[in-house]
Amino acid sequence: MTAHLGPVRAAGTTRRLVLAALAGAAADLAGVALIASAAWLITRAAEQPPLAALSVAIVAVRAFATTRGVFRYGERLAGHDVALRAQAGTREGLYEALIPAGPLPQRGADLLSRMVDDTDAVQDLLVRCLLPAAAALVTGVAAVILAGFLLPAAALVLAAGLLVAGLLLPAATAAAARRRSATIAPARAELAARVADLVHGAADLAAYGAGGRALSAAMAADGRLGRLERGQAWINAVALGIGMLAQGLTVVGVVLAAQAAGLARVPAAVLALAALVSFEPVLPLAAAGERFSGVLAALRRLREIRATPPAVTEPADPAPPPEPPLTVEVRDLVVRHGGREPALDGVSLTLTPGRRVAVVGPSGAGKSTLLSALMRTVEIESGEVLVNGVDVRRYRSDDVRARITGLTQDPYVFQASVRDNLRLAGPEATAEELSEAVRRARLEAWAERTGWDTVLGEDGRTVSGGQLQRLALARALLFDPSVLLLDEPAEALDEETADLLMADLLDATRGRTTLLVTHRLRGLEQVDEIVVLEAGRVVQRGPHADLVTAPGYYRDLWESEAMTRQR
Ligand code: ADP
């Protein structure tokens, strides 16, 4: 059991859990006591005794009716408090596990479904499985003891009935749901992924008339999930029916036993009604059994995420963070993604303070992988990266990323104001620093026109590709890393916008240690060295003037760029 609970953060929850279980049990016990005392009161009253003989029972009925409500309220409050805390803690633990893991193999929607639905399961585990089971156990045992005092034979019948409804049925629903539970969560993730495709890919789907197909795929996923969930509902409904049948038969059995033993009318009525009501907390356990299977499947999926190994190994005894200015030396670097061919195969380059190096090469040459290795988001297979003469693996990866970082390939606009989108890179930045970064990224006019408080992002104002890259550049300049990394800043921009951006970018990075990954050669005469990568290897290197005259990838690309411009 504790192994299953691996992903659940239970800090400080045990005390609250016990409190909630006690309140739940007290509420159910008060329910049984209420019905038993009411049964006694009604049947005794039918015998028309003096009123004084009933006064204790009258008070008891009132007291149990009131306390039941109070205890139930307490149970809901404490139960949900502990469940929400456990859920929040679990989610927090997952985030902590995910941060060092780097990009995950799961699709975004699947991951989201795990983060949302599967962590909800933690709440269900406590509120819908463990707490009801504890309350049902206490109530069942108490009812059997009460019945034992009145008539031992009836207690046996009641115990048998309660065991069927409270143990056998939940075990059966859990077993029946086990196979389904393993398929329901992936089916839900599949539906989430299909819906995400429909929403995010709407423009492409419309452009190629593929909306119908995508919609049918989503409907099919919805249908599959619906069928599985209906199956679950069936199991629950049948189990509840059997449970109620067990309840009815038990009450009949108790009444027959009372008759056979010649029990007086009053204790017989108390016995029968107490038996009837003691099933109340027990009947929902069948559905809890089914849910328990689902919860175990969800916890398994959470464990999978938590078990994702970190992208890079952190040093046991980290070196103190490197002091700027930084010198980065890459020596014979080999990096491999999974078991594939090396993405980088013996790459060397040096970035001394203030030096700007550009990396060019065809798509898939390993350019982004080189940046990832410098930012410590992929592990080095062999060779080394020295930062101020110390192997980068000896620093904490956070320390490296705090100094060697920059513009990523897919900069993201958050649903936040222009100011807050920039402040991401400098929460403490003053208004002057913000303006300076924006000015150097040549985004000043846009920022003034748009307004610093205008909300951008998903439900806000959209930004063009060029503005997005400039926004990302302003962020990078604001962060002011010792070594600025720029990954394809002019990617996906039209010719004119790209030329303007590159010119501004080369201007803004003058005198700054920069590694620029680019597929555009215009302006590269300004950088100190250009490294041409092909299939993970350095095939050419040198300043623009040398490369453009030597036969090879660089000259070919330069000529084709020139031809495009002439057209
Ligand atoms: P570039 O930036 O030059 O286009 P990349 O560094 O992105 O090249 O990719 C180099 C090679 O590594 C490619 O073959 C690519 O398919 C592979 N690759 C990159 N990232 C990953 C990854 N996360 N998992 C597996 N393979 C990857």
Automatic annotation (TrEMBL):
InterPro entries: AAA+_ATPase, ABC1_TM_dom, ABC1_TM_sf, ABC_CydC/D, ABC_transporter-like_ATP-bd, ABC_transporter-like_CS, P-loop_NTPase, TAT_signal
SUPFAM superfamilies: ABC transporter transmembrane region, P-loop containing nucleoside triphosphate hydrolases
Signal peptide: none
Its membrane topology: Multi-pass membrane protein
Keyword ATP-binding: yes
The ABC transporter domain, residue ranges: 328-560
Protein name: Thiol reductant ABC exporter subunit CydC
Pfam families cross-referenced by the UniProt entry: ABC_tran (PF00005)
Organism, scientific name: Microbispora corallina
Compartments in which it is found: Cell membrane
Ranges that cross the membrane: 17-42, 48-65, 125-150, 156-177, 233-258
Domain ABC transmembrane type-1 intervals: 18-258
Primary location group: membrane
